[in-house]
Amino acid sequence: MDKQQLIDCHERIKPFIHNTPVLTSRLINEIAGADLYFKCENFQRMGAFKMRGAANAIMQLTDEQKQNGVVTHSSGNFAQALSLSAQSLGVKAYIVMPNSAPKVKKEAVKGYGGILVECESTLEARERESDRIVKEHGATFIHPSNDDHVILGQGTACKELLELRPSLDYVVTPVGGGGLIAGTALSAYYFGNNCKTIGGEPFEVDDAYRSLQSGKIETNTTTNTIADGLKTQLGDRNFPIIQKFVDEIVRVTEDEIISAMRFIWERLKIVCEPSSAVALAAVLKKKDDLANKKVGIIISGGNVDLSHLPF
């Protein structure tokens, strides 16, 4: 994936996404000992960066593929992103969700026009149901993070950030399925001025950290983290990009995530989900190394269950 593909992707999806604001906080800068710039994808349509990749992936389909619709399996933000993108582009979207997914997320998918298909809450069940829809309806499967068009779309958030702040030394994102950090790392490489990419990851689901150590895609045996958006693992499309372009992955504790999340709510006065706070937690953990640097942070989303706040 090259610079021109990122530029073309961004032009393609601009009518369907928001160029989200970038916020700063003098107090957070003092505590971090660095200049932090928060790219607020919690203000993106459907509340998360995933709108970018979903829109790009659908727009790359042929007319025949669009007529037959798209399908994905997701319990969270990509389910909503694909539903809204498909609705905006006049395409049917079948969304396979585990029956254990929060009711609020199921309702959001239906509200965005997605055709909800529930299944057991195992990866096998999700994949089996997706395969059935592909066979029966001719729908095109779009993976939430391990898809070139999705990765390019996610990279446009960092591209916008660097257009506003071209002198960033680092850009930091959470790491889940790997689509956001892979796209971000590509944009940092092509549009930054020697800008490095760092990932933040919970200790409880540190598969990406271990994957970079071992040189192969690792899995998690448990997923006991508050950062529910980061429980997925890397894929064969995004892992090579991460290996080549990501500088480091910093692991953080659950307490550090909660503390960073509270910090964002209190100081930036914005709603962010736990997964988003992982990036700030990583910056605060590495503050000695990042002292006096200019650091961009992608606030990945703001779809949080207000009845289950951790503070």
Task: Please describe what this structure looks like.
The protein has 311 residues and is of the alpha/beta class. The protein folds into two domains: 204 residues, 3-Layer(aba) Sandwich (Rossmann fold), CATH 3.40.50.1100; 91 residues, Rossmann fold, CATH 3.40.50.1100. It has 13 helices and ten strands. α3 crosses α5, α3 packs across α8 and α9 crosses α11. The chain is globular and about 55 Å long.
CATH top-level class of the largest domain: Alpha Beta
CATH architecture heading of the largest domain:
3-Layer(aba) Sandwich
Low-confidence stretches: none
Q: Report strand order across the widest sheet.
A: 1-2-10-7-8-9
Q: C-alpha Rg, in Å?
A: 18 Å
Task: Spell out the key features of this protein.
311 residues; alpha/beta; Rossmann fold; 2 domains; six-stranded mixed β-sheet; four-stranded parallel β-sheet; 46% helix; 16% strand; threonine racemase activity; TrpB-like_PALP_sf; pyridoxal phosphate binding; serine racemase activity; Threonine/serine dehydratase
